[in-house]
Amino acid sequence: MPRRQVIAALGIFVVAALAVTAFADAARSGEGQAARSNLTMIAPAAAGGGWDLVAREAQQAMRTGSVVNTVQVVNIPGAGGTIGLAQLAGLAGDETTMMVTGTVMLGGISQAGSAGLENTTPIARLAEDFEVIAVPADSPFTTFDDFVAEWQANPAALPIGGGSAGGIDHMVAAQIAQARGMPADDIVYTAHPGGGELTLSLLSTAAGTVGVGISGYNDFRDLVESGQLRVLAVVSPERLEGVDAPTMDELGYPEVDLVNWRGLVAPAGITPEERTELEGITREMMATESWDEAVDRNRWVRSEIYGDEFEQFLVDEQNRIDDLLEELGLA
Hints:
The protein has 331 residues and is of the alpha/beta class.
């Protein structure tokens, strides 16, 4: 293995090891304490991405709303969230931990063929987050139609950047390709571990970087607002407030319709009373002014469901994602 690849592999191993150690320390700090006293929120991705944003907005709302005394966020990145999911599986019966989940994780589960969310305790779906297609401000693509025309003409020359392979960003790219009659195998998709890495690639002119990115709006928000990135289209039922870009429906692509929901799950093996307590904490958190502000600021749409309804939603959604990945040629 070349020296550069060895160094990169060692770096990934060290980051993963540090994340798992921090997670174990955080979990131990909550032993013997009720969730109202000390709660750990797992963001199963690197800092700066969508899951991390949800975890930290929830942390802020719980603190300012006096819902929980101490809330700590632990990042466990990798494999579309399935590394964090595996760590959660090792905490059976721990009522002081919750993990952020969503559409990306279902894609990661399907891709890896790993144990899924049936080995967790579903708590709540919180909100929906919307995907956007963005380019650097100086990109020659001024409209979405400009981009897809060039992409269809020579897909190999136009790599698309996004998050995990098989995740929602990848699926959106495949849905667009399918709508244009392009084989999924023609797509050159460059996966990134988080939104920060994707934006760095978009803004770089170095070899191997990308000129078009697909991700949740909030991964691009600061750079869009500062004028460094431009949104070509949004994957949402309606236009996003303050974002001057058409929806896929407006552009004639109603079949490009994936929504990235956000939710919370707890370890398996907690008691019904402990599950009720975590649901209560979540309801109180979402009733705070801080959470209201987060929903507005991040252009989320509330979509709250709990308990058995959320549990059935997870089953149905996993089946849907499995089928979609197979249909798109990504499974």
